[in-house]
Amino acid sequence: MKALYTRRSVRKYQSKPVPVELVEEAVKAAMFAPSARNQQSWEFIIIDKPELMDEIPTFSPHAGMAKGAPVGVLICHNEDYDTAVGFFPQDLGAATQNLLLALHAQGLGAVWTGVYPREERMAGFVKMCSLPENVIPYSFTIIGWPETEPAATDRFKKERVHYNKWEGK
Ligand SMILES: Cc1cc2nc3c(=O)[nH]c(=O)nc-3n(C[C@H](O)[C@H](O)[C@H](O)COP(=O)(O)O)c2cc1C
């Protein structure tokens, strides 16, 4: 519960490197996400080459913090495993959230940058990572040791919770 309530997007990172084992552990946690018909159509590309991290903002306009960041994880959908057609964005959203929470629990900072369904960003990752035709890039999570950590916020809105009917009780 603590991890759920304190996770925030971290967009500024220390220059110190991130051990790959920590990223791999978070990727493992991402694979424990629920998925429609348990299709688990995800693929994970860990990007740690500085020249690739620096290239990302050239095609993903809200991912400027990739430049100079130590590492990132591109989560993709592999159409070869598509048994619950149309559900992959929900499955990969759950996987991305697992990844973020696992990173946060390990003391790392991260931000989800949106890829799918923006054509330009998807095309950029397809080209940069030489993705085959059946692999669709979905989200890119940028990771590093936090330089600044945003404070936890309270987002609970009692009026958004409904019982049985819109105005029911
Ligand atoms: C689908 C999705 C796409 C997002 N894309 C970006 C992005 O491109 N760049 C960015 O800086 N943050 C991005 N975010 C992070 C949101 O801005 C952030 O989660 C939101 O403002 C709430 O703040 P918090 O994560 O600190 O709780 C994205 C989040 C989601 C769920």
Describe the structure.
This protein is α+β, with helices and mostly antiparallel strands. It is built from 5 helices and 4 strands, in the order H-H-E-H-E-H-E-H-E. The protein has a single domain (24-148), classed as NADH Oxidase (3-Layer(aba) Sandwich), CATH 3.40.109.10. It has helices at 2-6, 20-30, 50-55, 88-105, 119-128; strands at residues 42-47, 71-78, 109-114, 135-144. Strands 1-2-4-3 form a 4-stranded antiparallel beta sheet, with helices on both faces. Helix 2 (20-30) crosses helix 4. The chain is globular, with a radius of gyration of 17 Å. 33% of the residues are buried. The model has no long low-confidence stretch (mean pLDDT 97). The structure holds flavin mononucleotide. The site of flavin mononucleotide has 10 residues, from strand 3.
Key descriptive features of the protein:
169 residues, alpha+beta, NADH Oxidase, 4-stranded antiparallel β-sheet, 5 helices, 4 strands, 18% strand, globular, binds flavin mononucleotide
Topology:
Blueprint: H1 2-6, H2 20-30, E1 42-47, H3 50-55, E2 71-78, H4 88-105, E3 109-114, H5 119-128, E4 135-144
Antiparallel strand pairs: 1-2, 2-4, 3-4
This protein binds flavin mononucleotide.
